[in-house]
Design goal:
The chain is α+β, with helices and mostly antiparallel strands and about 160 residues long. The chain has two domains: about 70 residues, Ribosomal protein L11, N-terminal domain; about 80 residues, Arc Repressor Mutant, subunit A (Orthogonal Bundle), CATH 1.10.10. It has six helices and five strands. The strands form two sheets. The chain has a three-stranded antiparallel beta sheet, with helices on one face.
Length: about 160
């Protein structure tokens, strides 16, 4: 059995027979429509966000499987805020998330971000917020991290 893996970024639920997958899959003689349908089914919940996708094709049997990775933390933050991009300068603020939104993002990224516990993962999301010009509960994310560290704010 020889298997070929094709990777690409697609917007959730909007894969097509065009790039990045169509041209790579065509020469393999597989059902591109079925693969695109599977990708769209598995990425539908990430509408509006680009997600990493891998398609593994057995070149002998033409069987395939689709693996969907987690979208970047920054993309999830932008989706929660409903804004197209983060801050362009360090003094700009593009929005503020609630601690519940930050926890929801940390939960969805739990398998792919590091930390010994859930609080560490929440702090990692808050760090990304800081770099994007996003506040949490209208506060600097560093202040929220300090509250978590001191025990004033429980996130587990």
């Amino acid at each position: 059995m020889s298997e070929i893996t094709i990777s690409g970024l697609v917007e959730g639920g909007k894969a097509t027979a065009g790039p990045p997958f169509g041209p790579a899959l065509g020469p393999l003689g597989v059902n591109i429509g079925a693969i695109v349908g599977e990708i769209n089914k598995k990425t539908g919940e990430f509408a509006g966000i680009k997600v990493p996708v891998k398609v593994m094709v057995d070149t002998t049997s033409k069987a395939f499987r689709v693996e969907v990775g987690a979208p970047p933390t920054s993309a999830l933050i932008l989706k929660e805020l409903g804004v197209p991009a983060g801050a362009k300068t360090k003094d700009e603020t593009v929005g503020s998330l609630t601690i519940e939104q930050v926890k929801r993002i940390a939960k969805s990224k739990e398998a792919s971000i590091y930390g010994k516990d859930f609080a560490d993962k929440v702090k990692q999301v808050l760090g990304t917020c800081k770099s994007m010009g996003v506040k949490c509960e209208n506060e600097d994310p560093r202040a929220v991290i300090a509250k978590i560290n001191s025990g004033e704010l429980k996130v587990a």
